[in-house]
Protein backbone atom coordinates (compact mmCIF):
# COMPACT_ATOMS: atom_id res chain seq x y z
CA UNK A 1 0.00 0.00 0.00
CA UNK A 2 1.30 3.47 -0.84
CA UNK A 3 1.85 5.95 1.92
CA UNK A 4 0.62 9.53 1.49
CA UNK A 5 3.60 11.79 1.97
CA UNK A 6 1.57 15.01 2.11
CA UNK A 7 0.69 16.45 5.50
CA UNK A 8 -2.43 15.43 7.34
CA UNK A 9 -5.72 16.55 5.86
CA UNK A 10 -7.26 19.65 7.30
CA UNK A 11 -10.86 19.68 8.56
CA UNK A 12 -13.40 20.63 5.92
CA UNK A 13 -14.89 23.56 7.79
CA UNK A 14 -13.59 26.48 5.78
CA UNK A 15 -16.21 29.22 5.32
CA UNK A 16 -15.42 29.54 1.61
CA UNK A 17 -16.43 25.92 0.96
CA UNK A 18 -19.88 25.16 -0.42
CA UNK A 19 -21.84 22.19 0.93
CA UNK A 20 -22.44 19.36 -1.51
CA UNK A 21 -25.30 16.86 -1.56
CA UNK A 22 -23.10 14.06 -0.17
CA UNK A 23 -21.98 16.21 2.81
CA UNK A 24 -18.62 17.04 1.26
CA UNK A 25 -17.48 20.60 0.90
CA UNK A 26 -16.29 21.98 -2.41
CA UNK A 27 -13.15 24.02 -1.84
CA UNK A 28 -12.48 26.90 -4.23
CA UNK A 29 -9.50 27.19 -6.55
CA UNK A 30 -7.51 30.16 -5.22
CA UNK A 31 -4.38 30.14 -7.34
CA UNK A 32 -1.60 28.22 -9.02
CA UNK A 33 2.10 27.62 -8.63
CA UNK A 34 4.59 25.44 -10.46
CA UNK A 35 6.75 22.69 -8.99
CA UNK A 36 10.43 22.17 -9.77
CA UNK A 37 9.48 20.18 -12.91
CA UNK A 38 7.19 22.88 -14.32
CA UNK A 39 3.95 21.04 -13.45
CA UNK A 40 1.07 23.24 -12.31
CA UNK A 41 -0.27 22.89 -8.78
CA UNK A 42 -3.71 24.15 -7.71
CA UNK A 43 -3.88 26.07 -4.42
CA UNK A 44 -7.23 25.34 -2.77
CA UNK A 45 -9.26 27.20 -0.14
CA UNK A 46 -9.25 24.11 2.11
CA UNK A 47 -5.47 24.44 2.46
CA UNK A 48 -4.62 21.47 0.24
CA UNK A 49 -2.80 21.45 -3.08
CA UNK A 50 -3.31 19.30 -6.17
CA UNK A 51 -1.09 18.72 -9.19
CA UNK A 52 -2.85 19.53 -12.46
CA UNK A 53 -1.06 17.65 -15.19
CA UNK A 54 -2.14 17.39 -18.81
CA UNK A 55 -1.12 13.89 -19.93
CA UNK A 56 -3.72 12.58 -22.37
CA UNK A 57 -5.44 10.17 -22.39
CA UNK A 58 -5.08 9.61 -18.63
CA UNK A 59 -5.27 13.23 -17.51
CA UNK A 60 -6.98 15.63 -19.88
CA UNK A 61 -6.53 19.15 -18.55
CA UNK A 62 -5.46 21.17 -21.58
CA UNK A 63 -6.81 24.31 -19.88
CA UNK A 64 -3.97 24.23 -17.36
CA UNK A 65 -1.43 24.92 -20.12
CA UNK A 66 -3.01 28.29 -21.03
CA UNK A 67 -2.64 31.29 -18.67
CA UNK A 68 -6.03 32.80 -19.58
CA UNK A 69 -7.87 29.51 -19.14
CA UNK A 70 -6.17 29.00 -15.75
CA UNK A 71 -7.28 32.51 -14.74
CA UNK A 72 -10.88 31.64 -15.69
CA UNK A 73 -10.81 28.74 -13.21
CA UNK A 74 -9.97 30.95 -10.21
CA UNK A 75 -12.75 30.96 -7.63
CA UNK A 76 -14.41 27.89 -9.11
CA UNK A 77 -15.33 24.87 -6.94
CA UNK A 78 -12.72 22.13 -7.04
CA UNK A 79 -13.12 18.47 -6.04
CA UNK A 80 -10.29 18.02 -3.53
CA UNK A 81 -9.17 14.40 -3.29
CA UNK A 82 -7.62 14.98 0.15
CA UNK A 83 -10.92 16.33 1.54
CA UNK A 84 -12.83 13.49 -0.14
CA UNK A 85 -10.49 10.98 1.51
CA UNK A 86 -11.04 12.67 4.90
CA UNK A 87 -14.84 12.40 4.49
CA UNK A 88 -14.55 8.69 3.68
CA UNK A 89 -12.51 8.12 6.83
CA UNK A 90 -15.04 10.08 8.90
CA UNK A 91 -17.95 8.09 7.43
CA UNK A 92 -16.25 4.80 8.38
CA UNK A 93 -15.90 5.96 11.99
CA UNK A 94 -19.62 6.83 12.25
Explain how this protein is built.
- This protein has 94 residues and is an alpha+beta fold.
- It has one domain.
- It is built from two helices and five strands; from the N terminus they run βββββαα.
- The strands form two sheets. The protein has a three-stranded antiparallel β-sheet, with helices on one face.
- The longest helix has 13 residues, at 81-93.
Number of helices: 2
Number of strand elements? 5
End-to-end distance: 24 Å
**Structural class, judged by helices and strands?**
alpha+beta
SSE order, one letter for each helix or strand: EEEEEHH
Overall geometry: globular
Low-confidence stretches: 1-23
The fraction of residues assigned to DSSP E strands is 15-25%
Order of strands, widest sheet = 3-4-5
Level of helix content?
Answer: 10-25%
Largest sheet: 3 strands, antiparallel
How many domains, in number, for the residues? 1
The radius of gyration over CA amounts to 14 Å
Overall pLDDT metric: 77
Features:
2 helices, 94 residues, 5 strands, alpha+beta, three-stranded antiparallel sheet
What's the SSE blueprint?
Layout: E1 18-19, E2 25-26, E3 29-34, E4 40-44, E5 49-52, H1 67-73, H2 81-93
Antiparallel strand pairs: 1-2, 3-4, 4-5
Amino acid sequence: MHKNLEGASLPVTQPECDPNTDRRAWPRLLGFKQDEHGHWIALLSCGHTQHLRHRPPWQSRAWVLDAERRRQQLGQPFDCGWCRQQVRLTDKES
